[in-house]
Amino acid sequence: MNLARFLALVALVLPGAALAHSANQSGERAFQRCYSCHSVQKGEKGLSGPSLDRLSKRPIAGDKAFAYSKAFQAFAARNRRWNPELLDRFLTNPEALIPGNQMGFFGLRKPEERAAIIAYLMADD
User: Fold this and answer.
1) Which among 73, 80, 82, 113 is placed 20 to 30 Å from 64, CA to CA?
2) φ and ψ of 54, to 5 deg
3) How far apart are CA 120 and CA 26, in angstroms?
4) Residue 49 — left, alpha, or beta (φ > 0 → left; ψ -120 to 50 → alpha)?
5) Tens-of-pLDDT digits for all 125 residues of the chain?
6) In this predicted structure, what is the pLDDT of residue 22?
7) Contact at 8 Å (CB) between 81 and 56?
8) Which of 101, 46, 36 is closest to 75 using CA atoms?
9) Segments forming the whole domain that contains residue 107
10) CA distance 11 to 63
11) Exposed / middle / buried, residue 78 (Cβ in 10 Å: 0-12, 13-18, 19+)
């Protein structure tokens, strides 16, 4: 799924006159469950997960301040960058996409919640 098709899906899922503003608000709200482990602030440290700042602009497992699991490193060797489709698969079921990863997260069932988080993470990129 390319970014244009993904944003079209977001437009269908997120009602409102200003899609970007709505997507950002909905995504930020949906991302609240991620803040206990991840940040979207550049250089923020001390969390149990890597920073997700500029996620699609850097290599997968590209936060040099974070010690990724061997499973995540192997996945990164096969996949260069996150894109909406790959993030959707990961957020649906992290263990299915990256068996043996150390993230204690079981996935999100609601497609609209995943779409909002993905749009939020990709917005700064």
Assistant:
1) 113
2) 50, 45
3) 8
4) beta
5) 566 666 665 555 555 434 555 557 788 899 988 988 999 988 788 889 999 999 989 999 999 889 999 999 999 999 999 999 999 999 999 999 999 998 888 899 999 999 999 999 988 65
6) 59
7) yes
8) 101
9) 3-123
10) 31
11) exposed
How many domains does the chain divide into?
A: 1
- The two tokens of residue 60 are 């997968």
pLDDT at residue 27, rounded to an integer:
86
Closest CA to 69 of 51, 54, 49: 49
Residue 97 has what pLDDT? 96
- In this structure, what CATH number is given to the domain that contains residue 58? 1.10.760.10
How far apart are the C-alpha atoms of 48 and 35, rounded to whole Å?
10
Integer-rounded Cα Rg, in Å, for the chain is 14
Cα separation of 22 and 30, whole Å? 12
Q: What is the pTM of this model?
A: 0.78
- Do 23 and 8 contact (CB within 8 A), yes or no? no
